[in-house]
Structures are given as C-alpha cells and as structure tokens.
Design a protein that fits this description.
By secondary structure, this protein is α+β, with helices and mostly antiparallel strands. 32% of the residues lie in helices and 24% in strands.
Length: 290
C-alpha cells in the first residue's frame, strides 16, 4: 500500500509539474508573439526613409533695457530655422537651404548669398532705438519671432511650419503662418498639382468644404457669407498654404484671409483616408497613403 501511495504522489507531482511547465511555455510563446507583432507594427517602411539630416540655426538679439523688471522700452528679435547639414545630393541640399533662408530673412535682397541675419537684427534694433529717440514718451516694446519647425522628413518630402509673430506698433501683434513643402527629388517647393491631379482638385475642394463646415459647425445649406466668411461669391476654396503630414493635408487660412481678425485663423485638416481615391501613382504623397 505504501508503494502505491508513493507512486500516486509521484504521479500527482509529475502531472502538476508538467501542467505548470506547459503554462509557462505558453506564456513565453505568447509574449514572444506579442513582441514580434509590436516590432512589426513599429517598423518603418524602408522605402520611406531618407538620409537627410538637419539642425536648428538660431539668432537672437535685444536692445538695452530688456533685462529690467519692466520691458516697456525694449526690442527683441529671434530668428530660428532648420538647415540641412547632410543629404546625398549637395546641389539639392543647398537649393533648399537657400530657399529656407530667403523665407526667414527680413531683407529684400534677390541674391540669396547676400542674406546676413546678424546685420538684419542690428538694423531692427537701430530702427527701434531711433523710434524711441524720436518718441521717448511712447513706452513701446517691439519684438519679432520668426521660427520654423520640421513637420515631416520622410521619403522625398521635407515639410516646414513657419511662424512669424511680431509687434512694431499698432492695435495688436501680428501672426502669420506659412507651410512650405520641399521635394527632395529636385529641391523645388511642392505645389498642389504635385499631390492631386488638376482634374481631381474640384473634388478635393468639395471634400475640403465638408471638413470646413464640420469644423465651423455649419449646416450644408448655411450661407458662408452670412456666417461671417469672405469667400468670393460665397464659393469655398482651398488656398495654397498647405502642409503635408504623415496622415493629413493641413490648409491654413491666416488672420483676415477669410474672416475678421476677431475670429482668428483657420486650420483645416483633411485626412488622407478621405482623399485616397484622388491620389494617383505619380503623387508625392502616394507613399504616405500606402
């Protein structure tokens, strides 16, 4: 009887051990499968990678009096933008860098080699000091901030969000946003025709208007003019100020462009999922949609 009892105990613990090992094995296999799945999801499409590297270039300057507790009589200027430091094609690299510098420059020089940001800042400070000297009772501060952020650097596209925020007198500060998208194939700025064929842009406008009315909470039959918008003949349009992102086209209407300043700017987002049928094989955003 004792031997039988020992045998049963041995069998019980053997079965228990096997059961535990099976559960552990299944858990390990599950964890490995989850890791593989997640790794696959996070892996980027090699065809969308590029070797472009960039850095942020920054210039800052201020007048005397900016370090006090009050800055009633003070001028500040900041210019900050991305510049490509490494790319496979040196000519395209320089072409895009020069274009970016032109956007951020306050100068009207036609020759891009003449752009000197330090000299431009000096001129701004001198203009302010001359103003204060002429109107010492004004107690007015000036500032300029011109900043750029890279929003997309994939495949053959480099997209930049440019913000110009300034005040040099008047009722309020001025804000201006511009989106710039470059083709890394030739260094040119990307136009809407490079994304959507002209023959299909009317359909794009219809989709844009649907998104616009959702954004502004306007019914389909609502009159745009009566709602406070300045579209010519009340016909909605998409402007040329658009940004290419990973998953959307973003159109930006600056202050005063389509409505009064009090209503602010409009950022209209159109997801690629809603315009997929409009994109042909030659479109620069085709790799982003696939």
């Amino acid at each position: 009887m004792l031997l039988i009892f020992k045998g049963e105990i041995h069998l019980f613990f053997t079965q228990l051990r096997n059961s535990i090992m099976n559960k552990i094995t299944k858990s390990i296999i599950s964890l490995v499968l989850i890791f593989i799945i997640l790794s696959g999801c996070n892996q980027k499409d090699p065809s969308q990678e590029n070797d472009l590297k960039y850095e942020i270039v920054s210039y800052e300057k201020q007048s005397e009096g900016c370090d006090g507790l009050r800055e009633d009589n003070c001028a500040k200027i900041k210019i900050e933008f991305p510049q490509i430091v490494a790319f496979k094609d040196e000519l395209i690299k320089e072409k895009i860098n020069n274009s970016i510098k032109s956007v951020f420059s306050m100068s009207e020089y036609s020759d891009q080699d003449e752009i000197d940001f330090k000299a431009e800042m000096e001129e701004f400070i001198k203009d302010y000091e001359s103003f204060i000297s002429e109107f010492p009772e004004s107690f007015q501060s000036w500032f300029i901030e011109k900043t750029g952020v890279v929003k997309l650097n994939r495949a053959n596209i480099l997209s930049i969000d440019y913000l110009d925020y300034s005040y040099t007198g008047g009722a309020h500060a001025n804000t201006f946003v511009a989106f710039i998208n470059y083709s890394l194939a030739d260094g040119n700025e990307i136009t809407l025709d490079d994304i959507i064929p002209p023959a299909k842009q009317e359909e794009l406008t219809k989709i844009g208007e649907e998104e616009f009315r959702k954004l502004k909470e306007l019914k389909q039959e609502a009159d745009l003019g009566q709602a406070g918008f300045w579209f010519e003949n009340n016909d909605f349009y998409l402007n040329d100020n658009f940004l290419i992102t990973d998953s959307t086209l973003v159109f930006y209407y600056n202050n005063y462009e389509i409505t009064a300043y009090a209503f602010g700017p409009t950022e209209l987002i159109i997801p690629y999922s809603s315009i997929k049928s409009l994109v042909d094989d030659n479109s620069l955003i085709k790799p982003l949609i696939e």
